[in-house]
Amino acid sequence: MLKTYAVIGDPIEHSLSPTIHNAAYRELEMECTYIAYRVVQGELATGIESLKKIKISGFNVTIPHKIEMMKYLDNVDENCKKIGAVNTVLNDDGILRGFNTDMDGFLEPIKRNEINIKNSKILLLGAGGAARAIVAGFQKENAKDITIVNRTRNNGEELVKFSNELGLNAISKTIEEMNELDSNFDFIVNASSLGLKNEASIIPEKFLNEQTTVYDIVYKPVKTDLINKAKEKNCKIIFGYEMLLGQAIRSFEIWLDRKAPYEKMKRSILGGF
User: Which of 3, 52, 55, 66 is flagged as catalytic?
Assistant: First the structure.
């Protein structure tokens, strides 16, 4: 029997998720298909009912529904509880089970590259939904402290509070205050939308050296200005598509309870650009 999976959100037409998952199903000769399904803000309840009617086997959740979706779930995993958002749902005979793969997806390429997180100092740009999952991931792996840089002080302070509650020491700075910071960071992570439109990086170049791992979660373009500058300074680099791939692998394994074909999924993403 054909199983159907989906990604819901708005906008959704640029999602690479159908490309990634359908490539995996073809590789493993599975009777599954994955679609993109636009659900606009305010219509989530109706959207979920439609998915249940077609007996959807599972779906990913993206902007703007990751927090609101929590209300419609029958149970959630520990990551959802910790982060307060969901991005993967399994339909278990009408029972909706929620998971958050953002944290594991973020950590996956760091672990794959065998980069040590323990006792590290982090500079994090951005304070949105993805940033919460990233903070939770660094706390889980025993990072030392994190400096959160954000356009608006309020959102930065909210994330500092969240970080401190988890037990990870954090401070907040505005973009204007970033230059005053000490420059020895082990990780520099861009979790903001800066770079999506090929804007110039705002990270001071004094922060970039070969001891630094630069991780830009923007995956389109593959090479943002931050990535290009980090390459010039011989930093270790993790691309945004690697987080996307980490999330997709985790979703695949939650839904289908088998190992995902990593190389095939990776090639499908890079072909999607």
Answer: 66
Query: What's the CATH fold of domain 3-100+247-272?
Result: Rossmann fold (3.40.50)
Measured at the CA of 179, the angle between CA 130 and CA 140, to 5 degrees, comes to 35
> Residue 4 in 3-state DSSP?
strand
DSSP category for residue 74: S
Helix, strand and coil in the chain, % to nearest 5: 40, 20, 35
Nearest Cα to Cα of residue 178 among 205, 200, 218, 158 = 205
Examine the residue annotation and report whether 66 is marked as an active-site residue of this protein. yes
Element spanning 83, H or E: helix 78-83
CATH of 104-238 among 3.30.365.10, 3.40.50.720, 3.40.50.2000, 3.60.15.10? 3.40.50.720
As a dihedral over the C-alpha atoms of residue 109, residue 112, residue 118, residue 119, rounded to 10 degrees, the angle is -60
pLDDT in tens, 10-26: 999 989 999 999 999 99
121 burial (CB, 10 Å; 0-12 / 13-18 / 19+) is middle
Give the Cα separation of 106 and 134 in Å (integer): 7
pTM of the model: 0.92
Q: Which two tokens stand for residue 103?
A: 């944290």
Q: Tokens standing for 157? A: 């302070």
Q: Could you read off the pLDDT of 105-155 as tens digits, one per residue?
A: 999 999 999 999 999 999 999 998 789 999 999 999 999 999 999 999 999
